[in-house]
Amino acid sequence: MDFVAKSAGDGYTIGLQTVSLAINPGLTPKMPYDTLKDLAPIGMIASSQHVLVTGANFPAKDLAELVKMAKAKPGSLSYGSAGPGSTFHMSAELLKAVAGISVLHIPYRGGGPALIDTISGQVDMSFPVLAAAVPHIQAGKLKALGVTGTKRSPLLPNVPTIAEAGVPKYSFETWFMLFAPASTPKPIIDKLNAGLRQVLESPAVKERMAKDGFEATPSTPAEARVRLEKELLMWAKLTKERGITAE
User: Fold this and answer.
1) Segment 55-69, tens digit of pLDDT
2) Which residues pair with 39 in a beta bridge?
3) Which listed residue, 45, 109, 150, 199, has the most CB atoms within 10 A of its CB?
4) For the domain with range 51-147, which CATH number is right: 3.20.20.70, 3.40.50.1110, 1.10.1040.10, 3.40.190.10?
5) Cα dihedral sign for 56, 62, 63, 64?
């Protein structure tokens, strides 16, 4: 994204980034670029959810019981993540903040090892992406307590959202957005946005995304910027309050 931010605004250098673009400034004191000043959103591409899972033998049968356990013995439960600052990490920290619980963070070198140790019971829970977790949930190796988004996932229609399951103010999604250098003229941004939206309206593209747990979310450049601005503020507040860094 630093390369994109410092490139010529001619429409030929664009970047794709995730929700990490909104999270990283709160984790890293010295960013090499200013997200809002140096980058121009072209539009949203898609969003996806994570899912809170435990091992099959974990004693809590639902999220309400898990929260009760965590409050009864603060710090006694643990969760695995894909590493500091990852979406696995931040979705869990957001739950801790909103639900008012203390759960020990165990960072791994990637989501795969964290998921394996959740299945074996080395850690009590984790927040993998849907595509990685669904086969293990269907095989009975993992127990799904809630998906992180604002609505249930078609891949797990019987699993409630975390908000439905007892933490009403919780919502987390990984989104994907296309960007250009801030110096890119508006007509070029609008042309790129039109092309992007045309692709995202394709039934074949929507179907392919849905199979892996993604939902196409076409937007205008202005709508994408509003979401980015909102989440930059939210994640800056959360990381500061909880003392979270990328280390």
Assistant:
1) 999 999 999 999 999
2) 181
3) 45
4) 3.40.190.10
5) negative
